[in-house]
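Page 37, continued from 36.
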């Protein structure tokens, strides 16, 4: 018979007795993992934000920059530069009637200039310097096309002789006979001329007696005179009227600044004057920028009610 031993009192573990420790362990692991990833995220650089990235130079279609705003290295040749259409959009939108005469001074060097201007299809008056090499050809071609031709008479400027002038020009020191002889010669060199205006002449046009000698030839030929007003003290217009010559005076110089936008603004200034007074005379030169501007803006102004006329139409 077996010896009866002392009963050992062992507690059988309950099925859920270890769950609290497992739960605590799981929580500890989760906390450890969270701390690990948090520390890692602090050490790793944040993803690069796409902000503050410079925009492309041309992100959407746009109009070309005006020639004067382009960097020097990007400037194109004159023949290839398109007229900046956005200049017209920035200018006044006034409408109404008025007459404008555009005189192109310093013509006589090139037939190409004449052809470019004639392609505009509006009345333009050509004032030709008699001593230029293509003076007769330009006069003949302009007349054949139905355009109005003038003589651009060289006259002594302030500062002469340091300020250069054509050798055939009129000087204050000349006697009346020499002045008349030279003016007559101008008309022989520029056929079909129906009028004349002064080239330079800021000094000569201040002398009524000298202007009378020059304008006397115009009276004999029955042609008109336009005072270019190269000096505010000019007496050219008054002298012509006193002699009974049909005359007019320049209101606006278009291209002192050789830039299409600036020339466009001067054209609109001439149009504004024409609307107020009935007419305006504008003078410019066959510079490349001027040719481009005239080709762009004259048709646009015509659409607003401006009528372009020859210079003779604005004389009285």
């Amino acid at each position: 018979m077996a010896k009866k031993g002392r009963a050992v009192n062992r507690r059988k573990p309950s099925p859920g007795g270890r769950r609290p420790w497992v739960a605590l362990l799981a929580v500890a692991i989760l906390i450890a993992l969270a701390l690990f990833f948090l520390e890692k995220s602090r050490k790793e650089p944040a993803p690069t934000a796409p902000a503050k990235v410079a925009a492309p130079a041309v992100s959407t279609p746009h109009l070309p920059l005006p020639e004067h705003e382009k960097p020097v290295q990007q400037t194109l040749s004159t023949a290839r530069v398109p007229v900046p259409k956005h200049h017209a959009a920035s200018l006044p939108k006034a409408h109404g009637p008025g007459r404008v005469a555009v005189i192109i001074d310093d013509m006589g060097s090139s037939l190409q200039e004449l052809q470019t201007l004639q392609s505009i299809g509006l009345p333009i008056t050509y004032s030709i310097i008699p001593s230029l090499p293509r003076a007769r050809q330009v006069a003949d071609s302009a007349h054949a096309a139905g355009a109005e031709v003038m003589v651009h008479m060289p006259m002594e400027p302030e500062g002469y002789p340091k300020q250069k002038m054509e050798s055939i020009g009129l000087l204050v020191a000349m006697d009346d006979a020499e002045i008349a002889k030279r003016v007559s010669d101008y008309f022989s060199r520029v056929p079909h001329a129906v009028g004349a205006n002064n080239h330079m002449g800021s000094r000569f046009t201040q002398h009524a007696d000298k202007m009378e000698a020059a304008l006397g030839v115009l009276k004999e030929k029955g042609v008109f005179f336009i005072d270019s007003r190269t000096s505010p003290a000019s007496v050219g217009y008054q002298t012509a009227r006193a002699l009974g010559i049909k005359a007019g005076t320049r209101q606006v110089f278009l291209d002192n600044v050789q830039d299409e936008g600036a020339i466009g603004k001067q054209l609109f200034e001439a149009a504004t004057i024409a609307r107020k007074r009935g007419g305006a005379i504008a003078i410019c030169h066959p510079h490349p920028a001027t040719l481009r501007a005239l080709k762009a803006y004259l048709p646009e102004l015509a659409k607003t009610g401006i009528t372009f006329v020859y210079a003779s139409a604005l004389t009285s």
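Residues 94-314 form a domain with the TIM Barrel fold (CATH 3.20.20.370). Flag for discussion at group meeting. The mean pLDDT is 82.
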